[in-house]
């Protein structure tokens, strides 16, 4: 990794939240880095600190101690699309772009890349869940981010739409090569999508494993099963192997 260009550098980061007289340490002296163009999946149980780390990287929160270095251009796709209901689809995608003659054209091109050219003038309320999430993805990618943050973006989708979105994310990340961090509970999803899977347990980084299988990947096979077992054991889940 030392020969690669670093996109993210987290050094000695601790994040704590106070609730009354109690203090909850969400992240405990975390050291973490990502290369430019690398796809990292962050897995862990609920409350392990995954979303807290993503919020620090996005600039939505700041650490109590330590340093976070990230690229200037970074975008986030959340589990909920968070579209502005009073704006048409293309206008939602154009949010955050410099106003000018090219903003609508850029938005339309981005919507074409996610397969929504026919819906550019629709209102968000008329979209399916999968369509709305595609709009959110187009809105994130239209700015050509150096860091793309994905916070459980497929969690509310049905199984078929989830698979379609996974394929789309793979294609677009391969094309534009942002450093990408996916927060997910789904170990299988992490293995299918990521170059590296990082396990977070109780606010501490546990293990990190490289995923070297060629893309496109399928669930199954000896290497997949072995890697899945390693990750599940780190999460405290018995695999019966």
Describe this protein's structure.
Residues 8-227 form the ABC transporter domain. GO terms for molecular function: ATP binding; ATP hydrolysis activity. Keywords: ATP-binding, Cell membrane, Membrane, Nucleotide-binding, Translocase, Transport. 33% of the residues lie in helices and 27% in strands. The protein has two domains: 1-73 and 146-241, 3-Layer(aba) Sandwich (Rossmann fold), CATH 3.40.50; 83-143, no CATH class. The chain has seven helices and nine strands, in the order βββαββαααβαβαββα. The longest helix is centred in the last third of the chain and has 18 residues, at 159-176. The protein starts with 5 loop residues before the first strand and ends in a 7-residue tail after the last helix. The strands form two sheets. It has a six-stranded mixed sheet, with helices on both faces. Strands 2-1-4 form a three-stranded antiparallel sheet. The protein is an alpha/beta fold. The mean pLDDT is 92.
What brief labels describe this structure?
Rossmann fold; six-stranded mixed beta sheet; 33% helix; globular; 241 residues
Would you kindly provide a brief summary of this structure?
InterPro entries: AAA+_ATPase, ABC_transporter-like_ATP-bd, ABC_transporter-like_CS, ABC_transporter_ATP-bind, P-loop_NTPase. This protein is an alpha/beta fold and 241 residues long.
């Amino acid at each position: 990794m030392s020969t690669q260009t670093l996109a993210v550098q987290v050094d000695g980061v601790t994040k704590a939240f106070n609730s009354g007289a109690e203090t909850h340490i969400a992240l405990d002296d975390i050291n973490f880095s990502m290369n430019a163009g690398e796809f990292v999946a962050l897995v862990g149980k609920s409350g392990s600190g995954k979303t807290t780390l993503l919020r620090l990287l996005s600039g939505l929160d700041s650490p109590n101690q330590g340093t976070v270095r990230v690229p200037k251009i970074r975008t986030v796709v959340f589990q909920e699309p968070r579209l502005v209901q009073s704006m048409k689809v293309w206008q939602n995608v154009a949010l955050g772009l410099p106003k000018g003659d090219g903003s609508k054209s850029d938005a339309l091109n981005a919507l074409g890349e996610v397969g929504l050219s026919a819906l550019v003038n629709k209102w968000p309320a008329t979209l399916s869940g999968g369509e709305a999430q595609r709009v959110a993805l187009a809105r994130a990618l239209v700015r050509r981010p150096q860091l793309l943050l994905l916070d459980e973006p497929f969690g509310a989708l049905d199984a078929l739409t989830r698979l379609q979105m996974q394929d789309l994310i793979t294609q677009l990340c391969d094309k534009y090569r942002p450093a990408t961090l996916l927060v997910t509970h789904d170990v299988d999803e992490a293995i299918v999508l990521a170059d590296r899977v990082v396990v977070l347990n109780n606010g501490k980084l546990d293990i990190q494993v490289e995923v070297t299988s060629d893309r496109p990947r399928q669930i199954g096979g000896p290497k997949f099963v072995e890697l899945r077992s390693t990750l599940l054991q780190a999460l405290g889940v018995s695999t019966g192997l």
